[in-house]
Design brief:
The complex is a heterodimer of chains A (118) and B (537).
Chain A: H1 6-29, H2 36-39, H3 58-82, H4 84-111
Chain B: H1 9-14, H2 16-33, H3 42-64, E1 69-71, E2 76-78, H4 80-106, H5 113-130, H6 134-152, H7 159-190, H8 195-203, E3 208-209, E4 212-213, H9 219-236, H10 244-251, H11 254-280, H12 292-312, H13 317-340, H14 349-372, E5 374-375, E6 378-379, H15 389-392, H16 394-408, H17 414-428, H18 432-461, H19 474-492, H20 495-506, H21 513-520
Antiparallel strand pairs in B: 1-2, 3-4, 5-6
Helix pairs in contact in B: 2-3, 2-5, 3-4, 4-5, 4-11, 4-14, 4-19, 4-20, 5-6, 5-11, 6-7, 6-11, 7-9, 7-10, 8-11, 9-11, 10-13, 11-13, 11-14, 12-13, 12-18, 13-14, 13-17, 13-18, 14-16, 14-17, 14-19, 14-20, 16-18, 16-19, 17-18, 17-19
Chain lengths: 118, 537
C-alpha cells in the first residue's frame, strides 16, 4: 500500500540532489571577487536606519487574544446551533453557561480597559 | 441520539465543590474589575476563602455520606480519594489566601486577579484528583498549570519574577506535550483513554496495535509510560525533572510559592495514583524490566539524594526550601512505589496522603513566614536576612522552627509521623530492595536535618545584619498559627489524619480488583521481613 508513495520519495531525493549539486558547483566553480560594497547589507539601495527587531505594544496582543476568544466561541457555538434541536434544553443550558462565562470575560476585558487603543 | 442523559442532576451535584470554587473565581474577577483602585482588597481574599471553605465543607459532606460515584459518563470519579484530595487542595488554597492580603499590599501587587487565578488553579487540581480518563486528567493539568504560570510572574515589575513565570511556562508546556504524546501512544495501543479500560485492555492479552498482538513492540508501552512519567515527574518536581524548581520558587512571590509548592504536588501525586495504579497496575506494565515501578524506584532515590545534598549549600532560604521540596517529592515517591509493590501493600498508599497533609501545613507555613518579612518587592529570603529574628519576631521564628522540625521529620511534629509511615510502607513490602530504599531514605533525611537546623541556628543564634520589616496582618498571623498548630496536632494525634488517608485509599473506584480484594481483607499487623533475596522483578 505504501509502495505507491515511492515516486514521491524519488522526487524528494532528486530535488535534494539537484539543489545540493547546483549549490556545490557554484561554490566550487564560481569566481570570487569580494569588495567592500559587495559585502555591505543591501536594503533597496539606501542605508539601513535601525534594528529590525522592535518591541510591539501590548495592545496588538490584546487584539489578537480577543480575536482568538471569539474565534473559539464560534467554533463551539456554530456546531451547537446546527444540532441544537437534538441536544435539547441540556445543550441549551450548557451553551448558556459557556456564553455567560465568555461574556464575563469580555466584561472584565472591557472594564479594565483592554478594548481602548490609547 | 438523546444527549440529555450525558449531564444529569447527579453529575452537577457531584462536581459542586469544583463548580463553587470556579464560580467564586469568576465572581472575584468581577469584584476586582469594578473595584476602586486604591481601596484594600482584603474582602476579595475573604470571598475566596469563603468559596474554598464552602467547597471544602461540601467535599467533607460528600465524604461523610460515603459518596462513591462516577460522574459525566465515567469521565470523573467522585470517590473518597478525590474528595480527600479536594480537601487537601482547598486547605492549601485557604492558607495561601490567608497569607496573601498583607503580603500583596506591602509589595504593591494587590490585585483581585491573584485570588481569581488561585481559585481557577484549584479547580484544575480538583479535576486532576477526580480524573478517571486521560483527557480529563490533561484538562485538569492545564487548568491547574496556566493560572500558576501567571501567578509565578505576579511581581509585574520584577524581572526575576517574569523569568520565573516564563521558565515555568516554557518547561511546563514541554511537559504537557510529553503528556499528550504519551496519551496518544496509549490510545493507539489500547483504543481507549479511560484509565480502567486501559488496564483491562493491557491485561487482556498484551498490547494491541490494529488487532495484532505486538509482543515484539513491548518498547511501545514502555515509551508511553516514560512520557507520562516525564510529565508528572515535572509537576511533582522529581529529579531529573526538577531543574525549574529553585529558579521558579526563588522568583515567584512567596505567597504564591506556598500554594504552588504544596497543592501542585498534591494534585501531581493524586494524578500518579490515578494514572499508574488505576491504569497500569497489572503486570507486565508494572513489574517488567521496563516497568514503571523500577523507574519510580530510582526517581525516588535520585530525588532524595539530590534534593537533600544540594539544599545544604544554599544561601537563599527559598532555594533551600525548593530543594527540600524536591527531596520531599522523593520521600513521597518512596511511599508511592512501596504501596504499588503489590496489591497486598497498597494499604501503604495512605502514607502518601498523610505525608501530603503534613507537607502542606509545614510548607505553606514556611513560605508564609518568608512572606511575613520584606516590602515593596524586596523579599527577605537569605539566611543572613533572617538572622536574629528569633529575638525581634519571636512568634514568626517559633512558627518557622516548628515548620523546619516538621520538614526534618523530628517528633512531635506531623512530619515525623509522615516520614515514619512512608518508610514503614517500604519496609512492610518485605523485599530487600525496598528495605534498602527505606534505609537510604532515612540516611538522606538525616542529611536534611542539617540545613533545616541551619535556619533555626541562623534565626536564634546569629545577630541581625540588617533590620527586616515585618508585614504583619491579622490574616497572615492566622495562617501561621493554623499551620503551626496543625503541624503539632497531627504530630501528637496523627490518627485523625491517618483515618482520613485510609478512607481515601480505600475508596478509589477504578482500583484493580486485586487491590480492592487486598484492601477489603483485614490489614496485616506484622512486618514480614525477608532478608534473603526474593524473586523480585
Amino acid at each position: 500500500m505504501l509502495s505507491q508513495y515511492v515516486p514521491l520519495l524519488w522526487l524528494l531525493g532528486l530535488a535534494g540532489a539537484v539543489v545540493g549539486g547546483i549549490l556545490t558547483a557554484t561554490t566550487l566553480l564560481g569566481p570570487k571577487k569580494p569588495s567592500k560594497t559587495k559585502n555591505a547589507a543591501f536594503e533597496c539601495g539606501s542605508g539601513s536606519i535601525g534594528d529590525t527587531r522592535q518591541r510591539f505594544s501590548v495592545k496588538f496582543y490584546m487584539v489578537a487574544i480577543t480575536f482568538i476568544v471569539f474565534d473559539v466561541e464560534a467554533v463551539f457555538v456554530i456546531p451547537w446551533a446546527v444540532v441544537s434541536k437534538s441536544l435539547g434544553w441540556v445543550g441549551f443550558g450548557a451553551m448558556g453557561v459557556f456564553l455567560v462565562i465568555l461574556t464575563l470575560g469580555l466584561v472584565y476585558e472591557w472594564a479594565s480597559g483592554g478594548l481602548e487603543w490609547d | 441520539m438523546d444527549f440529555s442523559s450525558f449531564v444529569t442532576g447527579t453529575d452537577l451535584r457531584l462536581i459542586a465543590p469544583m463548580a463553587i470554587v470556579a464560580s467564586m473565581g469568576v465572581a472575584v474577577l468581577m469584584l476586582e474589575v469594578f473595584h476602586k483602585s486604591d481601596a484594600s482588597r482584603k474582602y476579595i481574599a475573604w470571598m475566596s476563602i469563603l468559596g474554598l471553605g464552602v467547597a471544602g465543607l461540601d467535599s467533607a459532606y460528600l465524604l461523610m455520606r460515603g459518596a462513591q460515584h462516577e460522574a459525566f459518563g465515567g469521565m470523573l470519579h467522585i470517590d473518597s480519594f478525590a474528595l480527600v484530595i479536594n480537601l487537601l487542595i482547598i486547605l492549601a488554597g485557604i492558607l495561601a489566601c490567608l497569607a496573601s492580603p498583607a503580603y500583596l499590599a506591602s509589595h504593591r501587587i494587590d490585585r483581585g486577579e491573584y485570588y481569581s487565578l488561585l481559585l481557577f488553579s484549584a479547580v484544575g487540581m480538583m479535576t486532576m484528583g477526580a480524573a478517571a480518563d486521560l483527557f480529563t486528567m490533561f484538562m485538569g493539568l492545564e487548568m491547574m498549570s496556566i493560572p500558576i504560570y501567571c501567578l509565578a510572574a505576579f511581581f509585574r515589575h520584577s524581572s526575576r519574577s517574569a523569568e520565573s513565570g516564563m521558565k515555568y511556562f516554557i518547561l511546563g508546556a514541554f511537559s504537557s506535550a510529553f503528556l499528550l504524546y504519551g496519551i496518544a501512544l496509549i490510545y493507539g495501543m489500547t483504543g481507549t483513554t479511560d484509565l480502567e479500560g486501559i488496564r483491562v485492555e493491557m491485561a487482556a492479552g498484551g498490547f494491541f496495535v490494529q488487532g495484532n498482538p505486538v509482543d515484539q513492540l513491548a518498547t511501545l508501552p514502555a515509551l508511553a509510560m516514560i512520557l507520562l512519567i516525564v510529565a508528572f515527574g515535572f509537576k511533582v518536581a522529581a529529579v531529573p525533572f526538577h531543574m525549574w524548581t529553585p529558579d521558579v520558587y526563588e522568583g515567584a512571590p512567596s505567597s504564591v510559592v506556598s500554594f504552588m509548592s504544596t497543592a501542585v504536588k498534591t494534585a501531581g501525586f493524586a494524578a500518579l495514583v490515578r494514572v499508574f495504579v488505576v491504569g497500569f497496575f497489572d503486570q507486565p506494565a508494572r513489574l517488567s524490566d521496563t516497568g514503571w515501578l523500577v523507574v519510580f524506584f530510582w526517581l525516588a532515590i535520585l530525588s532524595m539524594a539530590l534534593g537533600n545534598v544540594v539544599a545544604i549549600v544554599q544561601t537563599n532560604v527559598k532555594r533551600m526550601l525548593a530543594y527540600s521540596s524536591i527531596a520531599h517529592a522523593g520521600y513521597l515517591l518512596v511511599g508511592f512505589v512501596a504501596a504499588s509493590h503489590s496489591a497486598e501493600n497498597f494499604e501503604g498508599m495512605q502514607s502518601v496522603v498523610f505525608y501530603l497533609l503534613a507537607y502542606t501545613f509545614a510548607t505553606v507555613g514556611a513560605f508564609a513566614v518568608l512572606a511575613y518579612f520584606g516590602k515593596r518587592g524586596e523579599e527577605c529570603t537569605t539566611f543572613d536576612d533572617l538572622a536574629g529574628i528569633g529575638t525581634r519576631h519571636p512568634g514568626a521564628a517559633l512558627a518557622m522552627t516548628i515548620f523546619m522540625l516538621s520538614s526534618a521529620g523530628i517528633p512531635p511534629t506531623a512530619g515525623f509521623v509522615a516520614k515514619f509511615y512512608v518508610f514503614r510502607a517500604a519496609v512492610m513490602t518485605g523485599s530487600t530492595e525496598f528495605v534498602v530504599l527505606a534505609v537510604v531514605g532515612v540516611m538522606l533525611s538525616l542529611a536534611g536535618v542539617y540545613y533545616y537546623l541551619k535556619l533555626i541556628v541562623s534565626m536564634y543564634m546569629k545577630t541581625a545584619r540588617r533590620e527586616v520589616t515585618a508585614i504583619g496582618g491579622v490574616e497572615m498571623k492566622m495562617a501561621l498559627v493554623i499551620c503551626a498548630a496543625a503541624t503539632l496536632f497531627f504530630g501528637i494525634f496523627p490518627s485523625m489524619g491517618l483515618d482520613l488517608a485510609k478512607t481515601s485509599v480505600h475508596g478509589i473506584i477504578g482500583a484493580p480488583p486485586a487491590v480492592k480484594a487486598a484492601l477489603a481483607s483485614p490489614a496485616k499487623a506484622t512486618v514480614k521481613l525477608e532478608l534473603e533475596p526474593t524473586a523480585e522483578p
